[in-house]
Structure formats: C-alpha cells, structure tokens
Amino acid sequence: MRLLIISDTHLPRRARDLPAQVWAQVERADAVIHAGDWCVPDALDALQARAARVVGVYGNNDGRELRERLPEVARETLGGVRFAVVHETGQATGREKRCAERFPDTDVLVFGHSHIPWDTRADSGLRLLNPGSPTDRRRQPHHTYMTAEAAERILSDVRLHRIDPA
C-alpha cells in the first residue's frame, strides 16, 4: 500500500488549499493518514472526495463538527502494519517510552501537533512518525509531508518530502 502521511494542514488559516504537490500524492496513495488540525470540515470533505481511503483524527484546533466525525485516536491495519494515529503525544523528552506504553499493540504511531518532522523508534520497536506540516512550517525550514509503503506487515520506504516553492 502506498501511504501519504500528513498533519496540521490548518485550512484555510495557513493556506487556502493543500499544495498541488500534496494533492498529487493523494491521487497516488492507497490511503492517506492525517494526524489532526484540519480546522474546517471542508478540508476533511475535500480529502475524502479525492482519496482512496482516509484515516484521520481530530486535533486541538478542530471544532465540534470535526470532533463528531473523527476519533481522538484512530487504529487501522494497512498492508498488515498496525497503525495508531493521534494528534498530540506531549513533550519530546520521553516520548518514545510514553507512547510505547500507551500503544503496546501498535507497529507505527503517527502524530502531529508540533509541526516538527519526527522519525524514531521506541525500545519496544514502535516507530513514531510526525510528517510536519505541508502548510504551516512554523520554525521549521520547510513545509513537509511523508510517504511510505506498507506491505506484508512491513513499513518501508518512509520518506520526508519538502514542499517545492511555488
């Protein structure tokens, strides 16, 4: 399965729409994972209309309507890989240990909130991924997103992509 991993899109506050580069990845992906902070239901609707499959959660900037449509934590098996998706994981210090304890039956945890790309492993083997943000880089040098492949219970070819300047 081809995966697109995004978070913190903050539409339309930080951008009117997702960058064309991200929409191109949506068209290629078998599933899109979104780790919250959509900001408006229209962002979810647009992604669901164009993506083959969407796995998403709400974030701290998402209001009542998004919270009614999306869970705080999503769990999906994609390509045999057990994913959990959550918006916030707390401070960076001790994150791997905390998340391994909170998500013991998970292979990959996708999270957002910080807008800081992250790819680490806990001692338990849990892989933690944060794709950054394709629309709000904050103090990061680039807007970013991730792609990956999941097949036969293995996550491979995890790549962090920079958004090309317009």
UniProtKB/TrEMBL annotation:
<dbReference type="Pfam" id="PF12850">
    <property type="entry name" value="Metallophos_2"/>
</dbReference>
<dbReference type="InterPro" id="IPR029052">
    <property type="entry name" value="Metallo-depent_PP-like"/>
</dbReference>
<feature type="domain" description="Calcineurin-like phosphoesterase">
    <location>
        <begin position="1"/>
        <end position="151"/>
    </location>
</feature>
<comment type="similarity">
    <text>Belongs to the metallophosphoesterase superfamily. YfcE family.</text>
</comment>
<keyword id="KW-0479">Metal-binding</keyword>
<dbReference type="InterPro" id="IPR024654">
    <property type="entry name" value="Calcineurin-like_PHP_lpxH"/>
</dbReference>
<dbReference type="InterPro" id="IPR000979">
    <property type="entry name" value="Phosphodiesterase_MJ0936/Vps29"/>
</dbReference>
<protein>
    <recommendedName>
        <fullName>Phosphoesterase</fullName>
        <ecNumber>3.1.4.-</ecNumber>
    </recommendedName>
</protein>
